[in-house]
Amino acid sequence: MPKQVDYLIIGQGLAGSLLSWELMQRGCSIHLLDNQQENASQIAAGLINPVTGMRLVKNNQIDTLLPCAKQSYQVLSQFFQKDFYIAKSMLRIVRNEKEQLSYQQRRQDPNYLKYLEPELKQAPKSIHAPLGLIQQKQTGYLLTHKLLSCLKNYFQEQQSYQACQFNYQDLQLNNTVTWQGITAKKIIFCEGYQAIYNPWFNYLPFQLAKGEILTMSSEHILIPEILNYGHWLIPLDTHHFRTGASFDNAILNTQATTQAKQQLLATLTHTYPSLHSAAVDKQQANIRPTTLDKAPFIGLHPNYKNVAIFNGFGAKGSLQIPYYSQHFVQHLLKQTPLEDQVNCLRYRQHKHTLNYVIKPQ
To answer: Could you tell me the fold of the domain covering 209-288?
Structure first.
């Protein structure tokens, strides 16, 4: 049956789902297409960690991004009567003297008081951490699979969801967007790593990375905190946990590998020796849609004003997407300017190739 909507959304990962939710909360009609393949959002750890890297650097937008993410997930939790965001402190193993020095510098910086405890913590006997542990605050994780399932059911109830394979050749662009009898004012691509095949946006410099995650169970009672030791361990309850993620930017497929499994288990058992007998219940792999400059791609195509993208959040989607979905909706509905660092127009299409050049500032 013919159908008219405001926005046709391609992809039901976290980006497409939260953007669709925000548009619908503003009274817009959407039609969301889902290829039903397991995407990176569905297996993601959903970690939210304000201070990262060997130098313990605070995300420069964390004071904006974190409150927005917490508020958004609280609203969704109240609406669906389910918990999605699990606040949990993180213990970070100090791996060398450089990290120890970085911590000594950060703990004297008032900008880091909200995120780092002022004293190193002695490791429990079960953890190998001779240089001690940094206790990080305002950390946690999103139950992404649970949230996406609830949103999918909601979109289905609103008759705004369709499971199908989207073919670019079926799209017709005139003053409006038409796809298989559905007419929309704009189409927004939220395809994750598959954007590299998108004929309108394949010039954008994605730098994809494959990641693998293990879900495991142990006879030993786990520590209650998230553990960060280069990889991470998230306790799901007292005996079940997830650990990951591997990183591979050379072999980009969604097949789980023995090599990644062995690598994850080796670092796990070195750090947490009592888990040497823990059982692997599940191994999952997918591809993160990371970008050249580590910032997402948001906005309208330079030549087709009814074609847009909302993608490229990489491993920080659970932190960034709530804020940027609201930011993009404001741009779409009220023409407020997009932040320069995320606007996809920071790269422009080369006339003769699919390569990219940085647009002059």
So the answer is: D-Amino Acid Oxidase; Chain A, domain 2 (3.30.9)
Quote the tokens at residue 338. Answer: 């997009």
Q: Quickly tell me which residue has 């300017």 as its tokens.
A: 337
What CATH number does domain 3-43+145-205+292-358 carry, 3.40.50.1380, 3.60.15.10, 3.90.1150.10, 3.50.50.60? 3.50.50.60
Chain center to CA of 12 = 13
Instruction: Report which DSSP code applies to 333.
Output: H
Closest by CA position to 45, among listed 143, 136, 149 = 143
End-to-end CA distance of the chain: 46
Give the separation between CA 80 and CA 152, rounded to whole angstroms.
12
CA distance 4 to 136: 48
Please tell me the distance from the alpha carbon of residue 356 to that of residue 212, in angstroms, as a whole number. Answer: 29
Per-residue pLDDT of the chain (361 residues; tens, 9 = 90+): 679 999 999 999 999 999 999 999 999 999 999 998 777 888 899 999 999 998 999 998 999 999 999 999 999 999 999 999 999 999 999 999 999 999 999 999 999 999 999 999 999 999 999 999 999 999 999 999 999 999 999 999 999 999 999 999 999 999 999 999 999 999 999 999 999 999 999 999 999 999 999 999 999 999 999 999 999 999 999 999 999 999 999 999 999 999 999 999 999 999 999 999 999 999 999 999 999 999 999 999 999 999 999 999 999 999 999 999 999 999 999 999 999 999 999 998 754 334 433 333 2
Total-model pTM: 0.94
